[in-house]
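re: ur question from yesterday

yeah so i grabbed the chain u mentioned. its 593 aa long if i counted rite. heres the sequnce exactly as i have it in my notes:
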Amino acid sequence: MSDEKMPEWDLSEYYKGTDDKQIDEDIKKYAQSAAAFAEKYRGKVATLDADTFVAALKEMENISKLASKLGGFAYLNSTTRLMDAKASALYQKVSETLSEAGTDLLFFSLEYNKMDEKAIRKLEGDKKVQAYAPYLKRVRKFKPFELSEDVEKTLLEKDVTSGSAWVRLYEESMARLSYEVDGKKYNDAQISRLCLSPDAELRAKAGKEINKVSKENSFHVCYIYNMIMKDKAVEDKKRGFKLPMSARNLSEEVSDETVNALAQTVRDNYKNIAWRFYKLKAKLLGVDKIQYWDRNAPLPIEDDKSYSWDEAVQTVLKAYNEFSLKLYDIAKEFFENPWIDVAPKDGKRSGAFCSGPLVEEHPFLMLNFVGKRNDVLTLAHELGHGCHHQLRRKNGTLNETTRMTTEEVASVFGEMLVFQSMLNNAKSDDEKISLLAMKINDMINTAIRQIAFHFFETRAHDERQNGELSSERLNQIWLEEMKESLGPSVVVDENSAYIWEQVGHFFFLPFYVYAYSFADCVVNSLYWLKLQNKVENFEDKYLELLSKTAIGDYKEIFAPFNLNPESHDFWQGGLNLISYYLDQMEELVNKRA
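ran it thru and got these structure tokens back, copy pasting raw so excuse formatting
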């Protein structure tokens, strides 16, 4: 495994490198194009006929593509070179330029939203304009929360020295952290892997070390988080958002009430799912209670199988192919081209992601693959994102948007396909127990724990309105939410008090976390239908759903499956699949005893 050559992505289709002269030329071109667009159309949007309006949208689309190319390269390049000063400087330079020049484009949607309804209906009645209907519908939803063009410009210009700047400081600071266990140094990705070791003593050392290093950096991280929360609160107040999560919900096109219903339904299931599972896991680990860092620990009956990169690829592709040949054909392209950066290394961001800066081109996947079974599922997850992107390439740059709630559907579904394939091929009860434990653990992390994160985040932002929060107070909120969600069979104490600092989404995407639970419940509901063969041509309808996640509303895209996300029963139905797997696991464990 350690000697295996693993793929690295090749970003040269964007630019040849940090010193590529084309970058400066494109930065200049972007600024000039944006300025020319403003000069051509500012103050005239309400007077444009359908043909000229569409021509303007196409111009804006082309300008947006150039911005996405610049910003996408700068970001992707920096994620694998976080300790490279040139990469960081380029990222900041591009961010500042795009932010400054982008202010010239703000007027268009603002002027459009000032048009009267009759004029808008006439314009949108034209067939050519209807090609941009998803984009225009989305623009209209933001109308009640828009400010004057001057204020919008100021907010955009200052973002690079306020919100975005604090996020950059957080990410680069976390990438520089170093951990030590038994005299050996580890980076962020490597130390997290130790918590998956079959050695309980090693897990304890790693878990305590992560908390210790977090504590040592708590002053800076706490200050950064306070600034991010305050920066967000200032803008939310100016725009008139009701709750700290309301801005995110508007982007997701879900109501505050829907998110609250999801969160409360999950909270109501803490005891029946998470508490029950961790009690069972403690039993299998031979202890009364498990430590916080043991939540994801392998069971003693697991074979601790390692996968080579090629084995991981074949495992995932086999599962995709068993579900849909079309999905398989899309997926295999990622392994035939340099679109994936696989191995962990110093200066590389931890975790994994899929990023598709250019809507009409392929995306890139980033992993930190070390060959564990969970890494195979992570590959399935990010590959799901990649296939999802490929299915949406024809929707158009302006029409496409990232709704986190549906963005995670394809990825979680991809994981489910690989898990079920592994379970179907299991050769013993012990192997089935291990697989079920791994999957239930992951589903709890996705559907349950992310909602506990959501409650932590909500409480932190609510209290921040009354002044800065100390690290001690943030620790207290964190421990309270973790204890309630994990239950009495998990030890949650001072040795995990600072772990909230490791949750990057709190910093760079506030109120993103509930989207994981949203998507997991959606996937569970969909997969339950598949298992029961209740939907004819399920595979084709599923791929069609993926192609429309950014351009159709929730009722529309889930209608072919007779699912209604506005129903309380919808969320409970998604959680019931976790209980279904947990019932299977309990039966096998009791049989084993």
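noticed a couple things. Strands lie at 179-181, 184-186, 290-291, 340-341, 353-355, 364-366, 490-491. also The chain has a mean pLDDT of 93.
anyway ttyl
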